[in-house]
Amino acid sequence: MDPRENPNFFLNHEDPEFWNNAARKPHMKALLQSDDHWKLRKNTWLEQYSQVSESNDFRREVADCLEESSMATRRLVTPILHYRPVELHLMQVIKQAKERGVPFGQMVETAENQRILMDFRNAIDNDGAKGAEHLFLDWRQREIQQSADSRRQKVEGPQAESSMKEVQDGLSFATKYRKDGVVDWDRGCPEDALQAWRLGCEVLQRIRVPEADPAMKFFSELKVALLKNRALAALKLNSWQEALESADQVLKIDDQDHKAWFRKACALEGLGKLEEVERCLDMIDGIAVGRPDRDRLEHEIKAKREKVKALRSKDEVSQQRMLQLGLQKCLFSEEREPQPSAAPELPALQAAPESQAAARVEDATRKRLTRDGAEDLLKELERAYAEPSFREQVRKLARDVSSQEEFTRYLDKVAFPVQKPVLERWGFEATAFGVVEMRCAIQDHTADPQLKRQSDATTRALYGEMYNAVRGKQGKPSVSSTLPEQERMKQAEKRLQRRLKRSEDSGSEAEPVQDSSRLYAHWRSVEAPAIKGPREVVAAPKEQPAAKVASKESAANRKEIWAELSQAKKSADVKRLRAALERAVAAGFSAVTIRSAKQALVALGGSSDGL
Question: Which residues lie within the region annotated Disordered (predicted)?
Fold first, then answer.
């Protein structure tokens, strides 16, 4: 067998290096890791079983000890004894009583323990199980902190100097871990290499070598090598903080190590601390003086400085752009523009941040589509808009809002869940920025007549039965939108009655015709916006004369009117129902709501004349 493939070819099985080489083989490494895993699982199970058994014994002991306590203590503790924090505290009191040789009754009735038990009782009486849970979380946090302190003390090792055997064993294990890490690194496994070098550093932290010991030099060199290797692997895996801590520990031992300074600079760059990177590079400049490899170091430092300079320039551009946007929005002055509030009927909807997304779209870097790709994308959007569930959401939006302006504002938000899978399939971001970028990519080809027709068809599919009401014919408002609200409501109700009558004449199984006018009969009278093409940008509506604009009730008043109308319909009071109906008509409620209330009024023997 080739000795280059088998490092144990010239070694005896009694040699420790023979077994170290054998343990580095993949199959042996897997067996050792599996064995360590099941040993850990077994120890964990045994520890949990021991804790459960100990808790059961303590519960019985707590019950016996409370029988010997005073009546006041039993009255205080008995109602809250089944909560875990109280039980844990009493277990600690029993342990303290045994350690000090004091009776449990005397220990539990001290001022400190009585105060703690009283706090437990008050917290549980006030908040119940939630209060007990907060108490348990506080206790658990203290336990975790104590465990971390003890673990840190164990890792830091004894303060006294280690024996000769402990030093030899520690150095032997650390050397093995160092070689194992190098082998894993050469095999292209930085995760395994980092784990091996971590173990080596932990072994060295647990031993203390005397200053006069001849092994002190080898100990320092081995520790520096392990720490630098750990920093290198951490940088490879983007563990910036661990790399920074490892480099700092090396510099505490040798502040002239240029590799440690360079790896610290890389870690600081990953953490975004570019000012400190420059100081590390200046230190390497001073160390490189007089070294035979000075040219190589200067070349690496120059490349790193150029990279840091580019990152700084990029950050400055980003900050300047953010500042300009903030100044445009008056974020730094008292004349800040008020934020538009959401429609009272739709508390869950908010307008999409189109302006912010449009500001981020740069024409030089945005995604683009071919002419055929834009056509296919528009057809896919048209099919998505035709889904029955989406059409029902659009109709509900039309019924919930009170004006055309609100409908166009919230339509993008309603359409975004339908657009999201299409955006992802075509390589755009599934965000408002992606929607704007998609519209820009489509607009590149709207000069083509065929694509323009497809764009109009997609727009019609988006608005559906609301297209004429919102956009109108040739961008002009419909005749019904210019009528007073009372007249529009009457016309909508008449059309609905005619359609219902035709449905009854044609048979009970005939499907009623959908009347789109009743969806927006309650809207305020506004002028329809002009069509802007496939970008779906809607112009701001113009205000109508005061004589033609119906009065708009506030959200609170509409809710109050709706509640009063619902209660009046359930009651048998005709006067109350008519008064509530008059308020609903004046507030501009939908024709369907008014018709239902009128039917209830007639059923009670009242008259709907004049409503």
Answer: 334-361, 470-516
Tell me which residue has tokens 């009670």: 604
Taking a C-beta distance cutoff of 8 angstroms, is the pair 95, 57 a contact?
no
Residue 504 lies in a domain: no
Phi first, then psi: give them for residue 543, nearest 5 degrees.
Answer: -80, 140
What is the domain count for the chain? Answer: 3
How many DSSP H helices and E strands does the chain contain? 25, 0
Ordered mean pLDDT values, 10 residues apiece, the chain (611 residues): 64 78 73 79 86 79 80 83 81 84 84 84 81 73 67 54 78 88 89 89 84 81 91 89 90 88 89 85 84 84 86 76 63 47 35 49 75 86 88 83 81 87 84 85 84 87 81 47 58 66 52 55 53 38 38 66 83 83 81 80 77 70
- Residue pointed to by tokens 């164990």: 154
Task: Tell me how far apart the alpha carbons of residues 448 and 457 are, in angstroms, rounded to a whole number.
Answer: 14
Question: And the tokens for 1?
Answer: 């067998």
Which residue from 115, 93, 90 is spatially nearest to 102, judged by alpha carbons? 93
- The pTM assigned to this predicted structure is 0.36
In terms of phi and psi (left: phi > 0; alpha: psi -120 to 50; beta: otherwise), the region of 550 is beta
Cα dihedral 385/391/395/397 (nearest 10): -50
Strand partners, 451: none
Considering the domain architecture, whether residues 363 and 453 belong to the same structural domain is answered as yes
DSSP string, 549-608: SPP---HHHHHHHHHHHHHHHHS--HHHHHHHHHHHHHHT--HHHHHHHHHHHHHTT---
Q: State which residues form the domain around 576.
A: 553-611
C-alpha closest to that of 459 among 413, 412, 424, 422: 412
